[in-house]
Specification:
The protein has about 260 residues and is mainly alpha-helical. The chain has three domains: about 80 residues, no CATH class; about 60 residues, no CATH class; about 120 residues. About 60% of the residues lie in helices and about 0% in strands. Helix 1 packs across helix 3. The protein starts with a strand and ends with a helix.
């Protein structure tokens, strides 16, 4: 399901004084991990309305409204990327190596990798790799016990993305771990140094060879981690998309996760 937000929805989301702001904010918290987008036409409508002198919550300049929209738009860069994946899959085999190398150069250019860059690279390379090499998806692991270390890395990375407060991150981790009863006592909440993007990358490569039930249950646990506090941050959504793409499992609707909590 892809959501295309109209002018009214965007205004309610952006204007804290809007009569429907809380309703829209709760909706967005539940659905931000799914595919959603705006269009230049709706964004132009938001700028025109919010910059009117008679707007009830006070006039903003067009530049101020555009700046707010830019911050919001960061959260749907990955959904827009996913719309381009079919075209990338059509690249000839000879061009894939060059494309992957250029993408890696861009990601590494400033000497550090953001969650967005990590997620973008995982989404693209996983989509291209799965489409070109079916053997990459061969199932080798059927036991949760064989991947407890990797599960710890995945859930811990998401928990740290959810909060800078270690106690709050620990509670988010516990919420996700509670969904994995078979190994709940064997997985551990790791420090940030133990579950960085390098460790997450390796963990996802191994988990990609696990069975369908392991992948599905892990992604449900991951969804519970990011929804533990009722707020879905952009970094959480980016990592969740990267994990889902790596496991080749669709993200569960956040509403169903909240109902199951």
């Amino acid at each position: 399901m892809a959501w295309l937000l109209d002018v009214n929805a965007l205004i309610a989301l952006l204007d804290s004084d809007h009569v429907h702001h809380e309703i829209m904010h709760r909706w967005f918290a539940r659905h931000a991990a799914e595919q959603w987008a705006t269009s230049p036409i709706t964004e132009n409508g938001v700028v025109r309305v919010l910059s009117q002198p008679v707007y009830p919550s006070g006039q903003r300049t067009p530049a101020e409204v555009i700046q707010v929209l830019r911050r919001l738009k960061h959260a749907h860069k990955l959904p827009i990327l996913q719309l381009a994946l079919p075209a990338l899959k059509a690249l000839p085999r000879a061009a894939l190596g060059s494309f992957a190398g250029t993408l890696d150069d861009l990601v590494q250019m400033d000497g550090k990798v953001s969650t967005f860059e990590f997620a973008l690279q995982r989404l693209v390379l996983r989509a291209l790799g799965t489409g070109r090499d079916p053997s990459a998806s061969v199932i080798q692991i059927y036991s949760f016990q064989a991947v407890t270390a990797e599960i710890s890395v995945v859930l811990s990375a998401l928990a740290h993305a959810s909060s800078d407060n270690s106690a709050e991150a620990g509670r988010a981790f516990a919420e996700g771990a509670s969904q994995l009863k078979l190994v709940e006592g064997r997985i551990a909440f790791l420090s940030e140094a133990e579950c960085g993007l390098v460790q997450l990358d390796a963990a996802l490569d191994k988990l990609a060879t696990s069975s369908g039930p392991i992948k599905q249950r892990l992604l449900m646990a991951a969804a519970h981690v990011v929804s533990a506090d009722g707020v879905l941050l952009t970094a959480e959504a980016e990592l969740l998309r990267a994990i889902a793409a790596s496991l080749d499992v669709p993200i569960p609707p956040m509403a169903s996760v909240a109902d199951a909590a």
